[in-house]
Design a protein that fits this description.
- This protein is of the alpha+beta class.
- Helix 6 runs antiparallel to helix 7, helix 6 runs parallel beside helix 8 and helix 7 crosses helix 9.
- 35% of the residues lie in helices and 14% in strands.
- The strands form two sheets. Strands 5-6-4-8-7 form a five-stranded antiparallel beta sheet.
- The protein starts with a helix and ends with a helix.
- It is elongated, with a radius of gyration of 23 Å.
C-alpha cells in the first residue's frame, strides 16, 4: 500500500472526502475521455456522450470518504501513480484560505481571526469550520478552497480551528466602484444645486426600499447578499451624510428577518464601510 493511499484511508475514515493528485497537482481522469486533462479538469462541464463514467468523473466532485471506492478500480491504479493527496474541504464542512506568499500571510494576520494553520510550499493554509463558495484571487495571493474545490493534504496543522468568519465569507464579493465626489467630509452632504440629490424623498426612499427587497428576495448565499447590499447602499449614500440611523435599522431588520444575527449585521456593515473607506 502506498503512503498516499494510507493517508487517504485515514482521512476517509475520519469522514474527509479525498482524491489522488498526479504531477502538477492535477486530478486523475477516471475514464478515457478525461485522461490527461482532456476534459479540462472541470467535472461540472461533463455532458452526455463525452464521459463514460456513471458518476462524476474526477476532481472535487469525485472526492470520496468511501474506503471501498478508494481501494477499487479505477482509484487503486491511480494511487500507485499519485504524487499527492487532496481533499474536498467543502465536503468536510471546512473552508481553506490559501495564502500563497509572505504578503498574503501578513495581511491574514492583520485581518483574519487565528485558526488552524498548515504550512505550504510558499505560504500557509488557514482552515475554518464552515463551508462557502470557493473563489480564486479574492485578493493578491489569496484563494478560497471550499465547495466545488480541492486542496492538497499537507498534514493536520497547528492551532485551534474556529468558525468561518464573515470577513472570509465576504472576500469573493466583487466590490462596486466608489463614486468619486471629490474631497467631501463623510458627515457633510454633497450639494447639487444647493440640495443633496440623495435627500429627495423619492430618490432616497426608492434606494432603501430596493435594498430591503434585494435582501428579502435572497434565496441562498444570504451572508454575501447582505454584504453586497450594504456595499451598494454605502457606495451611493455613504459619503454625503444622507443615511440616518432609521435607514440603517431598516436594512438590519430585513437582514435579521432572513436569519442574520444583529452581530453579523454589525460586522457586515463595518466591513463594507472599511472596504469603501467611509
Amino acid at each position: 500500500m502506498s503512503e498516499y493511499l494510507r493517508t487517504a484511508l485515514n482521512l476517509a475514515t475520519a469522514g474527509v472526502p479525498v482524491l489522488p493528485l498526479r504531477a502538477g497537482k492535477l486530478p486523475f481522469g477516471n475514464c478515457p475521455a478525461c485522461t490527461g486533462s482532456a476534459c479540462g479538469d472541470r467535472p461540472h462541464m461533463k455532458r452526455a456522450g463525452t464521459c463514460a463514467c456513471p458518476a462524476p468523473c474526477h476532481g472535487w466532485a469525485a472526492a470520496t470518504a468511501d474506503t471501498a471506492v478508494l481501494t477499487s478500480l479505477p482509484w487503486a491504479g491511480a494511487w500507485r501513480e499519485a504524487r499527492a493527496v487532496a481533499y474536498h474541504p467543502g465536503g468536510a464542512g471546512l473552508t481553506v484560505v490559501d495564502l500563497d506568499n509572505a504578503d498574503a500571510i501578513t495581511w491574514a494576520r492583520a485581518h483574519l481571526p487565528l485558526t488552524r494553520t498548515v504550512a505550504t510550499t510558499r505560504g500557509e493554509h488557514w482552515i475554518y469550520l464552515g463551508a462557502m463558495r470557493g473563489a480564486n484571487n479574492v485578493r493578491p495571493g489569496v484563494d478560497i478552497k471550499s465547495l466545488m474545490g480541492y486542496a492538497r493534504w499537507l498534514g493536520p496543522g497547528t492551532g485551534t480551528m474556529v468558525d468561518l468568519p464573515d470577513v472570509v465569507r465576504a472576500l469573493p464579493v466583487k466590490e462596486r466602484p466608489v463614486p468619486q465626489h471629490g474631497p467631501v467630509s463623510a458627515s457633510v452632504p454633497v450639494s447639487v444645486g444647493g440640495v443633496c440629490r440623495h435627500r429627495t424623498p423619492v430618490y432616497l426612499e426608492r434606494g432603501i426600499s430596493m435594498a430591503e427587497h434585494r435582501i428579502t428576495d435572497a434565496r441562498s448565499a444570504v451572508h454575501n447578499t447582505v454584504y453586497r447590499v450594504f456595499l451598494a447602499v454605502l457606495s451611493t449614500h455613504g459619503r454625503c451624510g444622507c443615511l440616518t440611523d432609521a435607514h440603517v435599522a431598516r436594512l438590519f431588520t430585513a437582514a435579521q428577518a432572513k436569519g442574520e444575527s444583529p452581530r453579523h449585521c454589525t460586522i457586515a456593515w463595518a466591513n463594507a464601510r472599511t472596504a469603501l473607506g467611509v
